[in-house]
Amino acid sequence: MTHTAIAEQIDESHHPSSFITRYIWSQDHKVIAVQYAITAIFVGLVALVLSGLMRLQLGFPDSFDFIDPASYLQFVTMHGMIMVIYLLTALLLGGFGNYLIPLMIGARDMVFPYLNMLSFWMYLLSVLVLMSSFFISGGPTGAGWTLYPPQAILAGTPGYNGGIILMLVSLAIFIVAFTMGGLNYVTTILQARTHGMTLMRMPLSIWGIFVATILGLLAFPALLVSAIMMLLDKLAGTSFFMPAIVSLGESLDYNGGSPVLFQHLFWFFGHPEVYIVALPAFGMVSDVLSVHARKNIFGYRMMVWAIVAIGGLSFIVWAHHMYVSGMNPVFGFFFATTTLIIAIPTAIKVYNWVLTLWRGNIRLTTPMLFAIGFIFTFTHGGLTGLFLGNVVIDLPLSDTYFVVAHFHMVMGVSPIMVLFAAIYHWFPLVSGKMLHTGLGKTHFWITFLGTYAIYLPMHYLGFLGVPRRYYSMAGTDFIPESAQTLNAGITVSAIIVGVAQLLFIINVIISLRSDKKAAHNPWEASSLEWQTPQIPPVHGNWGAKLPVVHRWAYDYCVPGAVDDFTPQNVPVDAAHLSEGEAEGDRS
Amino acid sequence: MALAIILVLLIIASLIFHFASPWWFTPLASNWGSIDTTINLTFWVTGFVFVAVNLFLAYCVFRFRYHKDKRSHYEPENKRLEVWLSAITAAGVIVMLAPGLVVWAKFVDVPEGASEMEVVGQQWQWGFRFPGEDGQFGRVAKQFISDTNPLGLDPSDLAGQDDVIIDQNEVHLPIGEDVKVLLRSKDVLHNFAVPQFRVKMDLVPGLISYLWFEPTKIGRFDILCMELCGLAHHTMRGHVVVDTPEDFTAWLASQPTFRETQVGTKGDPIAGQALYATCAACHGQQAEGNKALNAPKLSGQASWYLSRQLHYYQQGIRGAHKDDIFGQQMAPMAAILTDKQAMKNVLAHIDSLEEAAVDNQINGNAARGASYYITCGACHGTEGQGNFSLNAPKLAGQQDWYIKRQIENFRSGVRGNHADDNYGKQMILMARMLKDEQAIDDLITYINQFDSEHR
């Protein structure tokens, strides 16, 4: 167990000594995590507002003066990119990854704290660069979040000058930030686990974050090079992605490039990206379900292997986003097969979540509501993926509202449900305060039912053949008037769900301001992060001695044990002693 | 308890929505019924899983709700159960995937004897080409693309001489015949999609993609661009008309071959001058326009645009709407110019006139107008100079009252609503971004600033 030597080191060099080093230039993983989370949630709110504006145009066309076709596409683009990269990726890995990794594996901090700090500041820089595109002439890019060339850099697309350049530069900076953080997460998980914390004793949150980070480290470079190549095409006149083109009546100097090459690079990143978001969510929801069902996660080993298998498979399915891209259609056979194979480990995860509830003792707390809501939304979103993954069904459905509905269920609503479950679950650990239950449950019900009211009907507009990314769907013979009514209904639901998120913000504010302290381990969880001497944990996490781990993270209601949960750091024989003694042993 | 009930209600509501939804696939109009069958099969499999998993979820939430004296069952894993579940899932996947791949194999492999049609996309129009009598498409290249050769055929390639050129957004196809559609783009990605045919494919500049189908229903179907192609993406529409073989043959014969599009006689301005006398009564000797007579300025406007409008008036595409009072006046006037050469001569005369200055009255907020114009400028040009290749007429130097009336006509559907007015339809969709009169005035105030010398 040589690797714990790293975790044992007490490095005083980054011990905070003033307000600035404690909260601003902090190298403490917990502060960095909160910095990441606050920034990500802030940009997420921007993206939420953008989606509201977009929905206003779709639900009530001809009503809003400030939404013209250009700004509509800009809203669509910025909403998508912000949500996928700057909110979900940043919050799940930069936020929860940073917070949970050292605490769950029993380390004092990340192994490269300075790099960790730089990672956040680079992330913040990427956000600022992206946001600045709202204030330049021409505005942000309206090329769609996929940024497909040639249109992304040609006149005829909003923001084809400044907007797209800032977008690409921002992405490049984000990837630098991610790489700094990601190397840190992987190294920490491999090298800084405490005594007894074997890989197969790690909580599934850590497994999800671990595999997702590896995916990110392998996938983001594809996006980085495509961003650089597109910048060169735009600024230096190269033709990586640009064939011979006559644009708006004008012959351009490009020659010989391939727009499909960009799509391959983009989706070689883009599909693993789905799992960069999904795997940490899978992991965290497993832990939330287990704690609040007072039951071990069902089929832990299978869950771990499913995460690894999904991660591996995610690199050989990318072209299912490109069935109708004009690539050689023969590829469809291969990618449809790999894509549908991925359904098997994914389905196993769903079964195991439900089987975790089976014969449990379920406490319907706020985080548990969100976690169960996730099972429902993810099942729905996963199953519609079987339509789109099956290449021939993708023909009628590709580029319609069905796609929008599918990926919002699976990659929007579902990770967000987990994020809320995670925030309600770990908030007491982070802040020492409980979030208000009544507000939390109201927040859950509106979000859960509201999002289903948005996306269930949206699939059916897709069956009808309504195309996505249309400013207006007027002027067709096949779309009935009633589709517009349905769209208006969807918009109303979207606005309600959007406004309901204020409940969450209000909840956070009043809870932070309240004097009531949370109990030490309010959910009675057995995983290590709740076993620190102080709640919230202080700098260095563990006081003088690192914890020693004796078991996996899921010992709930072990036959013969006194408590209905046994913390990971309780020695084997102590679990069977009376509660008081076990408590004493822990401190 | 509430959660369990609501989960069950959600399942029931989803099923009801599914079966009662009026929003469903359009009636099939091609041979691809096998795609619909695969979808239905997938629906049964996934629907079963959806109901089963979530019912079980609801049951667990209800049955194993918290009780402080209860303890949960400790069972880290159950190999048998996990293997069984994996095997059943794998079987379900095979049931869905196998037929899907069989149908895909049919899609990849175009049947022998399929006729060919080419679709050419550009921002934000469609063009089509048939191979002509020799059954062979002529070579194309970017450098040949011009106003008179919009699809860029190589004039020296003999195979291309008889190619039939359809430089508009509507195309015809014969029923009951397999057609291989070859797709290419002049500028950015587009996607050729006809919901009733089920199949779609991207148009990619630099390569030729394809799809095939057999139309099985007579009718007129929307073509939509389904790959984001810039600002006016949502206006990139077209139509495919499925005809009986006889009607199709007649239609195809009435379309120009490439050779025919290349031989055009020029108009004679001197000959046109006499004919123009009729027009001058309203439009003025210098074609300067006359607001009192509701006659717009013609001088300075591009001939291709005036020519199209005259044809539209002749064919009842424009000026036939019951509320288009002034258009109704113009229609019989245009009918006089039945002879092709006569029309060319008149247009040549108008083209020879010096562009008249205009006296504009509309006064709005030019700065706000400039922000609206960003959208307009994509087609009409940043200086309002017009763009032939986007079928966008010149705006600079036009009288403001006329532009205003046309925008209002587009917004109310008085103009552009005719089934054959594909460009007008785009303007209907675009004019909708101007929500009130003030917005129109602001926009026109900005357009008034353009230098009319730009042509």
Contiguous low-pLDDT stretches of chain B (5 residues minimum) are none
Rg of chain A is 24 Å
In round numbers, the mean pLDDT of chain A is 93
Rg over CA atoms of chain B: 29 Å
Question: How would you sum up the global shape of chain A?
Answer: globular
Oligomer: heterodimer
Largest interface: A-B, 122 and 117 residues
List keywords for this structure.
heterodimer; A: 587 residues; mainly alpha; Cytochrome C Oxidase, Chain A; 17 helices; globular; disordered C terminus; B: 455 residues; Immunoglobulin-like; Cytochrome Bc1 Complex, Chain D, domain 2; 5-stranded mixed β-sheet; 14 helices; 10 strands; 44% helix
Explained architecture:
The complex is a heterodimer of chains A (587) and B (455). Chain A has helices at residues 4-8, 19-24, 29-59, 69-105, 113-132, 162-191, 204-235, 259-292, 300-313, 331-341, 343-357, 366-389, 391-397, 401-431, 437-464, 481-513, 579-586, and strands at residues 246-247, 250-251. Chain A has 587 residues and is an all-alpha fold. Chain A has a two-stranded antiparallel ribbon. Chain A starts with a helix and ends with a helix. Chain A has a domain at 1-10 and 24-202: Cytochrome c oxidase-like, subunit I domain (Cytochrome C Oxidase, Chain A, Up-down Bundle). Chain A is built from 17 helices and two strands. Chain B has four domains: 2-65 and 78-108, no CATH class; 115-262, Immunoglobulin-like (Sandwich); 266-356, Orthogonal Bundle (Cytochrome Bc1 Complex, Chain D, domain 2); 357-455, Cytochrome c-like domain (Cytochrome Bc1 Complex, Chain D, domain 2, Orthogonal Bundle), CATH 1.10.760.10. Chain B has a five-stranded mixed sheet, with no helix packed on it. Chain B has a five-stranded mixed sheet with strand order 4-10-9-6-7. Chain B is globular. In chain B, strand 1 (115-122) and strand 2 (125-130) form a beta hairpin. Chain B has helices spanning 2-20, 33-63, 79-108, 158-161, 245-253, 258-262, 269-283, 303-315, 325-335, 340-352, 366-380, 400-412, 422-431, 437-448; strands at residues 115-122, 125-130, 164-166, 170-174, 179-185, 190-193, 200-203, 209-213, 219-225, 237-243. At the A-B interface, helix 4, strand 1, helix 9, helix 10 and helix 11 of A face helix 1, helix 2, helix 3, strand 7 and strand 9 of B.
